[in-house]
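Morning!

As promised:
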Amino acid sequence: MISNSVNPFEEVKKQIDIIKEKIGIDPSVAEQLKHPRQIISVSIPIKMDNDRVDIFMGHRVQHNMWRGPYKGGIRYHPTVALDEVKALAAWMTFKTSVLDIPYGGAKGGVICNPKKMSEDELERLTRRYTSMIIDVIGPFKDVPAPDVGTDSQTMSWVMDTYSSIKGYSIPEVVTGKPISLGGSFGREGATGLGAAICTRNAAKKIGLKLRGARVAVQGYGKVGFWSAKSLDEMGCKIIAISDTGGCIVNKNGVNPDKVKEYKLKTGSVYEYKGCKNIPSDDIFELDCDILVPAALENCITDKNCDAIKAKIISESANGPTTPAADQALFEKKIFVIPDILANAGGVTVSYFEWTQNLNRDRWSLENINRRLEERMNIAFDGVYKVQKSRDESMRTAAYILAIKRLEEAHLKLGLFP
Ligand code: NAD
């Protein structure tokens, strides 16, 4: 989503310049990171259920591949915009670098409203979009995954379309698949669990006890639910949850599974039993210890950041904080776990899924969660160490770590030809 005032890709470019100034990276590295390597835009004709043919705009942005194949989700949402997809692709490059995963960064997006489309229409859209970008994706080229508005069923259609055209089964072309198609145990909950692991680390650093800590979760889709569930299992109390329908508040805490069941039935968390109902955006003003934005970009802004009372913000969503708000939160000494660290659990288990697929192997959930925890802890400690040694925000520290690794990779590769 691009708000009137903030273009996320312009902000990515500014962020790269800030890091260049701070640590003196190679100017050609900085310049290349400001330019996605390849952008494919397609007009996708789809026969709708009423027999009319509608045209949907879709993009695939491949930002960088110095450290490995392109990797990134596919978003279906009415507000998808090319500069948003470019920013999301760049954030993937930085995220895989912070986690030291051998991938680059990419992202896809189609302008559509999946909530208003039938399952058949979504299947036709996914298959046609896949066929139109088929030359640029692939297990060693670019590996898509779910994002906002897409899920494991979408990934099954991508896999089937790709495999049907290539003539053999290629599960490793996408991650986030159902378990029955080579999906990984733990992938569904990985982004939320990863964010909860980071939150636990942050809580330790500021001396906040997780047992009983009050959590507010904005957005209750795949990531919001699993963030809430993981934090609940760590002993936190989920006192507020919002989605596009509204926000529910209960000081005694709610059961994340029961709220999900209710949302599945009614379409929203709004008016869940025993809760006070408030407008969706009022969640940012609530008295809580931990705030988890898990919806879209640019929701924590200079308009609402003064009212935020949380001690920790765990950015489960991509780009939830505008730069102006980020500076204000730093000055308020709120511990912000930046998106490129907090929500990297998803791509980490996507990497595990890809590795399992390439080896025709299956790892247990315990094995996956242990490996995820280990990688998240190492990444958190690495970022925290940079933050402490340079007295920077966690976000700046994460970018320093990511861009240094990218620079190192590029300088070893050299520039072709
Ligand atoms: P999703 O489509 O499953 O859920 C999105 C949720 O956000 C929905 O509940 C929707 O109602 C809610 N929402 C949208 N606008 C809102 C608003 N203004 N206020 C409150 N709620 C609002 O999407 P998801 O996969 O959970 O992704 C959420 C965020 O996490 C995105 O920023 C995405 O890029 C990021 N992310 C996702 C993954 C993943 O594995 N799916 C990985 C890393 C990062």
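The longest helix spans residues 365-390.

Hope this helps with the figure draft.
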